[in-house]
Design brief:
295 residues; DNA polymerase, domain 1; hpI Integrase, Chain A; 2 domains
Length: 295
């Protein structure tokens, strides 16, 4: 069964071009499922059935696994079984009648414009790492990029003269995102006064570097966002996509059309972008409660 998983993951990588992080998630989810069924003395894929899948979901729920994580694991299992039927490894798909649980979509946490300003003003631009951090924060907020996308941003992906960057997103899909004047200015200062010193005698195609001159990691991005948010006195839950959520929310609050925001965020489905319209509704409710004479 593990061999079939590897064949499926190769298909996701080579033919569908999914990102390494996505493939890693598929691997973890499928391994969890097959560890469960082998624990039930099932040693062949052909022996599995619909009850095994539903029992696994119940087992996950009883372990305290969240509904979103269970739904994601079920999606991985269903995708795997469909692949097996298509490749004639199996004759039937035991998940064809298993329904994906409907989930409430959470409204993503975002910062106010004032909180973003405080956050972006935290890095100390007198130091080379401060210049880098300022450029990172400005780029994230100006573009709405995912942290994983910003980490892999190459220097030649950014055109500061015209004012845009080229981003490679999920599934190796490319999109072009405009950059504002403040982000362009911060990146220029970083390229002039910080990046050469971080790079030293090394060479790197990546835009953002760590203090050793190598590509900065996702963990480092996350840590610096958290550090500066705390130093700005922001009490909200600090997550890696906080500036991405704020980018989308602020654009929609100011009248940007949903399709344009979808394009800049790189969402395959506009329903994902529509989550941010709920933020607007909540804001309207808060304003109504605050100012209406009969709230």
């Amino acid at each position: 069964m593990k061999e079939f998983i590897n064949t499926f993951l190769d298909y996701l990588s080579v033919e569908r071009g999914l990102a390494n992080n996505t493939i890693s998630s598929y691997r973890q989810d499928l391994n969890a499922y097959f560890d469960y069924i082998t624990g039930k003395s099932i040693n062949a894929l052909s022996q599995t059935n619909r009850n095994n899948v539903t029992d696994f979901m119940l087992f996950q729920k009883n372990k305290g696994i969240g509904a979103n994580s269970i739904a994601r694991r079920l999606a991985a299992i269903k995708s795997f079984y469909r692949f097996c039927v298509r490749e004639r490894i199996l004759n039937t798909d035991p998940t064809s009648l298993v329904e994906t649980p409907k989930l409430w979509k959470r409204i993503p946490e975002s910062l106010s414009v004032g909180e973003v300003e405080m956050l972006l003003n935290q890095p100390d631009s007198r130091h080379i790492q401060g210049l880098r951090d300022k450029a990172i924060l400005e780029t994230l907020y100006a573009s709405g990029m995912r942290v994983s996308e910003a980490v892999n941003l190459r220097q030649d992906n950014v055109n500061l003269e015209i004012g845009f960057l080229r981003c490679i997103g999920k599934g190796n899909k490319e999109r072009v995102i405009p950059l504002g004047k403040k982000a362009i200015a911060s990146i220029k200062r970083y390229l002039e006064a910080s990046r050469p010193k971080l790079l030293g005698k090394k060479t790197s195609e990546f835009l953002f570097l760590n203090r050793m001159g190598g590509k900065i990691s996702r963990q480092s991005f996350w840590k610096l966002i958290k550090k500066y948010a705390r130093s700005a006195g922001i009490k909200k839950a600090i997550k890696p996509h906080l500036l991405r959520h704020s980018f989308a929310t602020h654009l929609l609050e100011r009248g940007a059309d949903l399709r344009s925001v979808q394009e800049m965020l790189g969402h395959a489905n506009i329903s994902t972008t529509q989550i941010y319209t709920h933020v607007n509704k909540e804001r309207l409710k808060a304003i109504h409660r605050m100012y209406h004479p009969r709230p």
